[in-house]
Every structure is written in structure tokens, then in C-alpha cells.
Amino acid sequence: MQLNSGAFMADLVKTFFKAARLARKGRPISAALAMSDSVTPSVRPARKRAKKTKQASPRKTVPVLPRPAPGSFITQEFRCKHGTLAYKFYTPHGSARRRMPLVVMLHGCSQSAADFATGTGMNALADELGFLVLYPQQSQRANLARCWNWHNPAHQKRGRGEPAVIAALTRHAMALGRANPARIYVAGLSAGGAEAAILAAAYPDIFVAVGIHSGVAHEDVHSLQGAIAAMRGDTRPRPTGKVRRPLPTIVFHGDHDRVVHPSNAGAFLRDLERSNPGQLVTKSVSGRSQGGREFTRRIYRSMAGTVLLEDWTVHGGGHGWSGGRGGSFTDPAGPDASRAMLDFFLAIRRRP
């Protein structure tokens, strides 16, 4: 109810004069009733406010990123709460409607994304086999030599440091290229190989297989001094105790590597054995590459026939991408590591 004070005062004055006239005419009761009415304010019912209809808040729509054109090799910068990375992204020739696999390639120290793409020849292989390729690029602000900081505990765990940035960038690339989420792989050379091992352990929900070329195994190093010792072939006892089953892994290492000691390749088999995979079925194959390098390929399967580890030793190979050419840290004489990794990767997908 709302009180109209101006109307009330006007009514009160009128009533007062009316009562006075009634009193002069000898009608005191009528005068009293008239005055009693006047002391009750005249009120009017409040207007009913129209109920505001609750409007449904508009749905937040996730912006759809324009998919790069087939055959394009774009350069962009990615930012997230964990940091910033430049990257190159290759979309192969062919149908733009395909849900293709995605391979994340992590360069070694002193390399760039473009240099690594050239040396590994992954883009040409992507055209042939039909997969997307993401090349994250380390910043010199983060490391003067462009090495991934794989030896630093701040960059070794899920949700922290460089692994978190690369994982977020990988998700971005998956959306950008409409990648098949059941077929996401990661590979790297040297420091990039060590970083790939960390990513595979930290984000098994993203990646389904990993390739390490001339790298150091996950959990073996937690300081710069430890990294140098491992790269020199430190023979101190390795970690023991059961670990989670590693993702399917393919390893390449030259037995004449003078930068990362070849003994580091054996750590991946030890990690597999520590996960209690049951009895392993081993097959060993020897061969010679077209460039004249001999190699030994060992395949480790479960009793059910699932390939768990493939280990390539390149005899006479140094610290370079086997079979690579045109870029830095490549070994053109060796067996084709890029093709071997893709054959390994594309045979594996995440089960629904």
C-alpha cells in the first residue's frame, strides 16, 4: 500500500470544514464520525509490479578455430596460464574433412621448429600418410640454448612448467586441426626426447605413444648436474620399485653418440620391466640402411601380442636424427627414424 500525503491533507481540510458545518447545525455525532474518517489516511493499493521473467543466460559458445588449409605450414604463438610458446603447425595435403592423427615433434638444443621440421622430413611423410604435425619451439628467454628444461623438477610434472604449456598447446592444435583424439603422439630428439618422455608419463590422457631419439628416460634426472652425469653415461644405480606402465615407446639411439651416452637407451626397457608387464616376448632383427648403416631392432611384446617397446640401435650412428637430412643434428646414412616412428604410432590408438 502507498500513502498519498498530498491527497490526505486536502481530504483532511475538507473534512474539517464539513465537520464544523455539521456541528453548527447541531449534529455533533455526524461531525465526530466525519473527523474519525479523516484521521485514517486515504490509501491506494499499490500497483502490482510485473514479475520479471527470468531470461535464460546465453550459452557460452566456444569459438570455432578456422582449420588451416591443406598443405599450409603456419607459424603462431600460443599463450596459456602456464606460459607462452611459439609453434609451427603443418596440415597435410588432402581432404579437409578427415579426422587425422597428430604428431607433436620436440626439437633438440640449439634447434628451431623450422630446422627440426626440415631435418626430420615429417611434413613430406605427413602428406604421404595423412597426419597433422605440431612443432613447439622453445624460447631463448626460457633457455639460452633453446633446450627444454627437462632436468629441472619444476618442469617434470603434470600441470606445471613446460609440460603443462606443451600439453595445452597440444589440445589447442587438436582443436585447430580437428585431430582424432584417439591418435595423438609425441616424439623428440635429445632434450626434446627427454621432454617427450616426461610428457608421455604426465599426460597419458592426451598421448597414446611416444618416440625418443637420443634422449634420457623419465625420472632419472632432477638437476643440471644429474643431467650432465646421465648424458655422460653415469653408472650409478637407477631408481627401483614399481612404476606405472609406460605408454608404448619407440627408441632410437646411435651407439657412437658422444653427446648422450648410448647406455641411456636401456633405461626405457628397465622402466617397462619395473611396471611388471608380465612375461615379455622379444624379437630381434638386424639390418642395413640404404645409407649403409647397420642397425639392430628389438621388439618387446606382451604375451597377448601388444607391442610395448621398440628399441633401435644404430651402429656407428652419432647424435643426430637417423635418416634425417637438410637440418642440424641429422644422420642421413641411418635408417629412417621418422618412418619407423610413424609406422609404430599409426598402429596404436586409444581404445574407446
Structure description:
Strand 11 and strand 12 (307-314) form a beta hairpin. The chain has 352 residues and is of the alpha/beta class. The chain is built from nine helices and 14 strands. The longest helix is centred in the first third of the chain and has 20 residues, at 5-24. The model is unreliable at 1-20 and 22-46 (pLDDT under 50). The chain starts with a strand and ends in a 6-residue tail after the last helix. Helix 1 (5-24) runs antiparallel to helix 2 (28-38). The chain has a ten-stranded mixed beta sheet with strand order 3-4-6-5-7-8-9-12-11-10, sandwiched between helices. The protein has two domains: 2-44, no CATH class; 73-346, Alpha/Beta hydrolase fold, catalytic domain (Rossmann fold), CATH 3.40.50.
Q: How is this fold's topology laid out?
A:
Elements: E1 2-3, H1 5-24, H2 28-38, E2 43-44, E3 73-80, E4 83-90, E5 102-106, H3 113-120, H4 122-129, E6 132-137, H5 161-177, E7 184-189, H6 191-202, E8 209-213, H7 224-231, E9 249-254, H8 266-274, E10 281-288, E11 294-301, E12 307-314, E13 321-322, E14 330-331, H9 337-346
Parallel strand pairs: 5-6, 5-7, 7-8, 8-9, 9-12, 13-14
Antiparallel strand pairs: 1-2, 3-4, 4-6, 10-11, 11-12
